[in-house]
Please model this.
Amino acid sequence: MGADTKHLLSLNGAAIFILLLSAAMYTSDHRSYGNALQERDKTRRMTSDKVGQLQSTVSSLQAQVVAWLAHTGRHRYTDLSRNELYKRPWKVEDVALMRHDAAAKSNARIAGLGPGNRQVEGHETEARTPVELSDEALLHWESTLLKKRQRAVSHTAPVTGVVTIIPGRDPPPAADEVLEDFSHQHAVLAYTKEAFVSTPLSIMTDAYAPAASGHAAKKRSCDDDFGNGLVQRWRDTKEEWCQPKGSATREVDGTGKAGASSLQCYFLEQSEHGGDGDNLCVLENMSIDLAPFSDEVLTKKVMTEYKASQHNDQAYVHFAKGTVQAQCQLDNAKYTEKKFPGWNGDWLWGGLDATPDHHQRLHCDMWEDRTTLFVERDTFANMYHDTEDFVNAYLALAILEIAVKDVQIILSDLYPWGPFESIWQQGFGAVNPALTAWDMKDTYGTKRVCFKKGIIGIYGPASPFCIMATDTGCVNSPLMRSYSDFIIRGMALQRYTYPVQRKASKVVVINWMARRSSVKWPERSFCDDHYFKCTFFEHLKQRSLSRVVKNDDQVVAALRILAEEQKVEGKSLFFMDADYNVLPFEMQMRYNLMTDVMIGPHGAGLTHQMFLPDRARLIELFIDGSSGNRHFHNMARWRGRVGDMYQGVEMDNPVPIKKVEELVLGAV
Model:
């Protein structure tokens, strides 16, 4: 705004005058007040009641403009003559500067601007009739002023700026302070680093209460489907599918031959999951030929098909028979193709060659003694679908009663790290760093590696939380709650969580989980010079998303103003608008831990509710026909958000701002 437009006017003394100026706003070319009066043949007389209502509206503007001024540091204005006040083509940005000021000079300049007067040449006044505005003009004035005022305010605070401290909240405990779980419901958050890496994940899960039941699925309890009961039920399915033959131990005399192998599988039919069942298998003394990951022709073919399918074909190497070798006798009654869903089949059906001849021991170029969990990710940059693999890895280690320090994870797909590397490295790889397929190639080369114990992980869509077509009746899943705390503790963010705070906060944080077409395709953002070469994705530009709130900027502005104006039951509000697409994942997690009310349209970003405080509310906006998706309803229930702590609301798009405000205030 130019210096000639910066002028201070009092709202208290000039409410009606602002209405006069605002009438001009409703004309598209911002014509002067005088020209606007020529529309009088389309108007009706404004009643005193309407004047009173708009006076109140204008008065409420004051607090917002004060906040805006504080943000922008605009404390000085250039005086305009009374003539200029009427003659200039006023715009709403100018009106946004009008607020009360105690300076006597400013008050004197606006003294003559009451109802029944208007300014003319020579600084004179003349009587005139009250302003006449049509209903259309009044509605347009209200909406235009609101939108422009919101834009002025919202532009003063960075949309993706980093918020590390919430004003009015106590700072978190010091980094070296011994933490205590004051809630007595989040044991993992109070773990020391040593306890975190050395405690089997089965014990971590056991520390959380059994799942409560709303209704039992297929006559099973909720704990059997989503809690410690599920872990035990899966553990109890253990069977030997390939019996060891020959020597029970590997040769250590320099012959480079493996000893007898075994294949133990945990095959389970989960409630409300499709397919024949889901599998977790453990191979002991298995030999894997890793040469395919160094085969540039093969890996390029995989990536070419990924590109040609528009990313529907996943970036998986499909193994030839014999890539995985084991010296054992298969039980063909148990070992059937249908029991290996998804990429599990590449490893243990298409790729496995088992021989019972103990005279033909397996060849090993080198041994890997660490227990290794192989995972092929469902994708690499979608919070919901990546969480399938995070939860499955956690579940697998809980079933097998393994601690973090005793396992190494290898991501054997051809995807890059993507935005969630910190979960793999700081959570699961806190002692033994996780490896991508490229890291595996660099570590082992083209060798045939014998693994003392190799785990073929659970197929991504088999994750217990992947129930999206029906409503769950189960709440407070120990599996989901302990997983959430496991990730928070692994990323060393536990001191920012509410269970370790000694007193409750009086500041309620509202987090708008935006869904915006604001960044490049993740294939462009995370491509590299490894398998996922940038040359495959040069054609991709900015990604266009579905289910985008069409009036996102107005919603943001309205919620920002709401937070600045409202105080509910002695608590103040703080609004965060953070585009998670452009924030580092650790900062996304920090924002989650600060949040009391998360609101946004249906989309993968709502998976972040997994890490919200127990007290937090989630409001899911079902726009563009998305109400049939029950992903986040179910996830909210499993995290303990009962009753109206979760609300799924069908809405038009653009979304009605007043309705959004009502939902937020109701949640607060």
